[in-house]
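Appendix C: a fully annotated inverse folding record. The material below is reproduced so that readers can follow the format used throughout the book. The structure is listed first as tokens, followed by the designed sequence.
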């Protein structure tokens, strides 16, 4: 069972690598990967009181896989953001890879996304506001981009006590 101690922290070079797609022949590994992502997220929630999504690279799994736990769990395999609104909004972003730091970023207000679910069926979502922001944050992890790199300016960092 993975915990907060297994989440890679800011500065770990694996977090800056571009992840590779999950292949259909790897579906047998998916259950273990998702269980690890789920247990690490639940541990973060218990310790820091936040966490709606986690990307596989945060556990050192360099695959294009996102796990969300909102009203229910969602597994997003090989997601692709296909559209982004021109309209942006600002927010303080948090991250499990630097749980005591907030970063002020801009995100697209609306996105369209395609992905494969855990049964290898193609899905399409339209998301806006906080769900769009969450997906963009986790998607960035798949491309080796951290919120710290999206900071609006040098004053866009705040420690959490």
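Designed amino acids, in order:
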């Amino acid at each position: 069972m993975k915990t907060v101690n297994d989440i890679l922290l800011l500065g770990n070079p694996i977090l800056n690598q571009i992840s590779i797609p999950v292949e259909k022949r790897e579906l047998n590994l998916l259950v273990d990967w998702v269980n690890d992502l789920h247990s690490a997220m639940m541990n973060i929630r218990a310790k820091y009181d936040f966490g709606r999504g986690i990307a596989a690279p945060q556990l050192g799994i360099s695959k294009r896989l996102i796990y969300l736990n909102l009203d229910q769990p969602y597994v997003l395999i090989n997601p692709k953001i296909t559209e982004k609104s021109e309209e942006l909004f600002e927010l303080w972003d948090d991250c499990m890879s630097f749980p005591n730091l907030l970063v002020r970023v801009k995100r697209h207000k609306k996105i369209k996304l395609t992905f494969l679910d855990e049964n290898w069926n193609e899905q399409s979502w339209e998301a806006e506001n906080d769900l769009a922001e969450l997906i963009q944050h986790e998607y960035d992890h798949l491309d080796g981009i951290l919120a710290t790199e999206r900071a609006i300016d040098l004053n866009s960092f705040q420690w959490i006590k």
